[in-house]
Amino acid sequence: MPDVRTRSVKSLATAAEAGRHQREWFADLHRRVADGEPFALLNADVPHEIFRTMDIPYAVSQWWASLVTAKQRSGHYLELVRQRGYPDYSEQYNSVTLGSAFDAEPEAGPWGGLPRPDIIVGDATGDVTRKIFDIWGREPGVTFYPLESAAENEVPANWWELMPHRWEEAVGPARLDLLTAELENLVRFLETTTGRRFDESRFREVMALVNEQEEWNRKTRDLIARARPAPLGVVDSIPSVMLPQWHRGTEWARDLARRLHEEVRDLVDAGQAVCRDERARLMWIGRGLWYDMGFYQRFQEEYGAVFVWSMYLAIAADGYVRYGDDPMRALAARFAAFGDQLYTPPWSSEWYVKEARLHGIDGVVHLVSDDPRGGYFTTRALEAAGFPVLEVHADNVDTRTFDGGVAERVGQWLESVVLPRSGSSPVSGRTPAVSTTAAASRAAGAS
């Protein structure tokens, strides 16, 4: 085995390429909207693949919020929400994007601002999310198309093993019947309102490309889980995974997922490590801390603690792959239980425990925000499985909620709980200064 060498903290080549592509794509999006093409704003957890198939330009609400936050502009948009008399302290991830609808100078936003959408599509998960999209639908020229959020009493064990081929068993026929019918109605609605046609042959191509992309992500997840020490941290992996996710169903996204795997494999083969003296492997549960992505790098130099896991690569590996002869029903299976996989116990809690064991995690930092339910059960399940958990109660796009002493709390927790359990002790030194804005910009594709 080659000698372990510390890799300088910098973006992967695939992350840099993803950032460049995102800028070029958004500039092209502006041109297409200016030329009169219909524009859709989609929630992260709805089937983008239909819009890809019909070549309808779209952007993702959560991606826009992450970009705005990385540019330290989320406070501005939350203020616009507050000025309209709406709460600025609830479900900020979508509220930040809603603020764009109220901006008198939208072109002053990042990258020229978010174009005004013609169509909004979101799932009705929770009362707050539905109300936010209802408000969007009251804006002139905007139509909101809601998708239902169904539940199932029976919860499958080890759903991640069932989903690729046995998704009917995992999700349940009633939920699949409902969402399949809704997606078929969505296609008819889009054909009527946009004049675009839905081509099933093209749809099958899109679905196949998504499966290929996520299979590469699964290989990358498994490679990182096995590697000791970690070849990269989550600041490197998140942009290389998430920006292509917003372009699922394209050859570019499929190919970038393959190149990411090759890049990580080369790092492992060369004996490269993001932290030479790795003493603890950490798991970050929750959404990306977009206004302070450098947070994840602060504990490597002094404590030898590396955040090796985030939900973005892990859910790409386990949450998307669907094979089957009926592509529309397979697409419904991809999203009918998507929120459950991340937030609803025991779907979510059992999965997090599985991932912690797979990656050899020594400690978990759990970002608990108001709107994703199930945080209590996630923490309890991990602790019951023997993993120490530190909860951070904050919102990932609202800087007002983030206590400036969180990094100190994490350091104390590492010293008193995590490192003693792993038989390690911190070395003397100071945590290196990290450009948090630059790290956040890379992760959101903003640099």
TrEMBL record:
Entries under Pfam families matching the protein? HGD-D (PF06050)
Q: Where is this region: Disordered?
A: 422-447
Gene Ontology terms, MF aspect: hydro-lyase activity
Among InterPro entries, the record links this protein to: FldB/FldC_alpha/beta (IPR010327)
Q: Where is the composition biased (Low complexity)?
A: 431-447
Cited PANTHER family = 2-HYDROXYACYL-COA DEHYDRATASE,D-COMPONENT, 2-HYDROXYGLUTARYL-COA DEHYDRATASE, D-COMPONENT-RELATED
The entry sums up its family as follows: Belongs to the FldB/FldC dehydratase alpha/beta subunit family.
Task: Indicate what this protein is called per its UniProt record.
Answer: 2-hydroxyacyl-CoA dehydratase
